[in-house]
Amino acid sequence: MTALATPSALAARPARSPHLLRWLIRLHRPALISWIVFVLVVGGLLLWVGGPLTDASAAAWKQYRACGTAHCAYDMDAIVRYKDWYTYTTVAVVAVPFLVAAWSGAALVSRELESGTAQLAWTQAVSPVRWLAAKLALPAALITAGSGLLAGLHHWAWSAGQGRIDTAKGWHDLGTYAANGTATTAMALAGLASGAFWGVYKRNSPGALVGSLVSTGTLWSAVALATPHLWPSVSTISSLRHSVPAGSGIVVDQGLVTSTGEQISGHLCGSATDRTCRTAYDRLDAVGYFNDHHPASHYWPLQSTATAIVLAVTALLTTAAFELLRRRTASAPARKAAAV
């Protein structure tokens, strides 16, 4: 790999630049303004969803439940409007880590290394390490504050509809679970760190952009698949007279319990009152259902564990970016001296 050029004299000079923060804000002003606008717009929509839209939908459901006939008046538009805008705002919050990863990979580090702006900054008494630290510090603070605010507002908007709107999403819904907690903020920071690493590694915007998005998507998918196994589950046994196993939440495993206590995954047919299902259950010697799942009380333990894992990966990516930059810039003077 080609080393990044940096003057050897800077290795012994203290890295001080009182105008570094101002320069970074000026350089990334469009991204800063876009982020503020995004947070304000999505935050405003979440206030709308959790306030007027929830109230209107709850009133419509109250009208519907009071109907005594098949043909009665209720505000269906209010129900649909709440459902649509809840979905839109949920997607917007869940998309934050990918938006951050795309910007971080395409513009934060790679573009300056590619254009030579970073090398110019290093000649102004700003060491490469200090340059990268400054590049990450302010965005990390803004991303943490903005994504944390959106996650908090989403959780509030979601909780406003619980028990009032019949079609409100459960806590374990994939999008709701992701948008309601701290893991989304951690994933946004992981996207930032991923963009920084790929920016130093590739030093070209397209390559860093693709690498950052793929890394963030891979991490998100891995955490989603691992979530059911991040905390001990609860097992519920129920009668075959029911159509489905008892117990709601994030399902780890479901199936049948035999007379010997053996658990057989799957093979769910329906209520044993149905003759076909009864025959199938008798063939398997099934006497009940089992459901290994996470109830609502496991939400924060699962979120906290997932957040810790993502933050650990973020720390590793950040460390790798600094170490890679240090090696490449430290080798430049040695290569120059060898050439002379």
How would you sum up this structure, described in words?
The chain is of the alpha+beta class and 340 residues long. It folds into 2 domains: 34-230 and 303-339, no CATH class; 234-296, no CATH class. Helix content is 66%, strand content 8%. The protein contains 12 helices and 4 strands. It has helices spanning 20-27, 29-65, 76-94, 96-108, 110-115, 117-122, 128-161, 174-180, 182-202, 205-226, 275-284, 299-339, and strands at 234-238, 250-258, 263-265, 286-294. It has a 4-stranded antiparallel sheet with strand order 1-4-2-3. A hairpin with a 4-residue loop joins strand 2 and strand 3. Helix 3 (76-94) packs across helix 8 and helix 9 (182-202) runs parallel beside helix 12 (299-339). The radius of gyration is 27 Å and the shape is flat. Residues 5-18 and 334-340 have low confidence and may be disordered.
Q: Uncertain runs with pLDDT below 50, 5 residues or more? A: 5-18, 334-340
What is the count of β-strands? 4
Termini Cα gap: 20 Å
Rg from Cα = 27 Å
Strand order of the largest sheet: 1-4-2-3
Give a brief description.
With 340 residues, the protein is α+β, with helices and mostly antiparallel strands.
Task: Identify the notable features of this structure and list them briefly.
12 helices, 8% strand, alpha+beta, 2 domains, disordered C terminus, 66% helix
